[in-house]
Fold this sequence. Notes:
Elements: E1 9-13, H1 16-29, E2 34-38, E3 45-46, H2 51-55, E4 66-68, H3 70-77, E5 80-82, E6 86-91, E7 96-101, E8 104-109, E9 112-115, E10 119-121, E11 134-135, H4 140-153, E12 157-161, H5 165-176, E13 180-185, H6 196-208, E14 212-215, E15 219-223, E16 228-231, E17 236-238, E18 241-244, E19 248-250, H7 253-257, E20 268-269, E21 281-283, E22 288-291, E23 298-299, H8 304-318, E24 332-336, E25 339-345, H9 348-353, E26 358-366, E27 377-385, E28 391-398, H10 402-414, H11 419-423, H12 439-452, E29 457-458, H13 460-468, E30 473-476, H14 480-484, E31 492-493, H15 499-502, E32 512-515, H16 520-531, E33 537-540, H17 543-547
Amino acid sequence: MAIEGSVKKILIVGGVAxxxxxxxxxxxxxxxxxxxxxxxxxxxxxxxxxxxxxxSRDIPKRSSLxxxxxxxxxxxxxxxxxxxxxxxxxxxxxxxxxxxxxEGESDLTYDSLILAQGGTPVFPPIxxxxxxxxxxxxxLPDMDGVHKFLETEKPSSAVVIGGGFIGxxxxxxxxxxxxxxxxxxxxxxxxxxxxxxxxRLIRRSYETAGARVFTGRSVRSVDSGSGTITxxxxxxxxxxxxxxxxxxxxxxxxxxxAGLEIGPSGGISVDEGLRTSDPNIWAAGDMxxxxxxxxGRRIRVPLAGPAxxxxxxxxTNALGGSMTYRGALGSSVFKSMEDTFAMTGLSEKAARAxxxxxxxxxxxxxxxxxxxxGSEDLFLKLVFDRSSRKLLGGQAYGRAGADKRIDTLAAALxxxxxxxxxxxxxxxxxxxxxxxxDPINMAAYAAQNDLSGYSPARTxxxxxxxxxxxxxxxxxxxxxxxxxxxxxxxxxxxxxxELRDRFExxxxxxxxxxxxxAGFEGHVALRQLRQLGFKNIWNVSGGMAALSLEPDLPxxx
Length: 557
């Protein structure tokens, strides 16, 4: 792809995921190109996703997080790497970037420029965040600072401000190391991108491990002298070390000053080839604004997978190629103590905000057959459009199998599949790995049953709202043993196996919501009652597994 008779200059501002990938790809395409990476930090390529796991000591060797050095880049790819070098200004007409490094300022010219500067953690306006016991976790030096503080100061307590991916991973690390850990999250549930029930599952896992969780709260101040933080309601929490993970802003200062177009999400606006508003400049990674593959909304996706793919595409097109970036799904997976949460596409709340005719289907099912040792419950939710029946997204939570199902749903989203397609998926089965009907199949069957009216369903949230308004009677069809573990106030207990003999006890003039352990027995009960003449009946999607996650559920005394 090299231009005959010329040597093309490729300048990349920013290393790590997108920038380092772009440099390696550019060299594979053009052996003659002059490729330079300008990196503000001290490392050109490191595994920033692994930083919390070094803090937890799951990753014992710091060196394993360094993926490439400047010497290694030059040896393998003949890429020039300028570390601790900051891009000061961009002259688009001269195709030149002014930089300042250890040896002073200079101008670097380019034929094609790739911006891959990533983002910077946001520090909210909290009094005391400049205290010596306050850290962030974004770079290797950040990690080194946290690790050194833990080793030398040996704080007994830790507070994490922010309940997203990095904050929760850090909270797990502190908890595993024996620090009394508290998590403070401004929104009402942890993991804000997820639907609330999954945030509550994640909260449960951290509290079970001994952490304290404060949601719907903000931090007023940090006092390193007393080793505490104060929340907005006056609550004081022990805080020997404080880690702030309250969001990330894209590093667009250089682009803004040069007049490049900025999109509504705050990232650099790019086309489907990742080209910016300047025909000689491309952008990739956390700072680029791209399209969500479901619905087309313009977003930023600060995840390593999309950043690497974008770096590859940007480099190809900067050398004259014509690759297309089709957008991101936001597919992600997160280790929640001993459990796993994963999601892809749109959550229910995001789908509603985007204007879709939203339907959901929730199942709680073993990740492989229960008769084979090691079976674990999996909580799976499909989000779909009721009009087109197309899948919009999915979320999963459990001790095992969540990542597998979400990867399957990500592929389904990429292919534009419907819930009918999911019901027909031919997935691998053997007792150690799955059930004959995978949880995805089961969730899709439930969606089909609801859409067709064969077995109409109500979500756990809709169920609670109907009970609060006294618009329906909850008929609990669980066994006596299941019922004894917790029941809803004013519900009618009628075990499934007694239903045929006792159905005359049911009021024919009321809306009936059928509650089972995880949804399936409720479906069986609904089909029985439909054939006995009952009309206004619905199955509670996900059963008690889903309903128990609702915060205002009226429990029986």
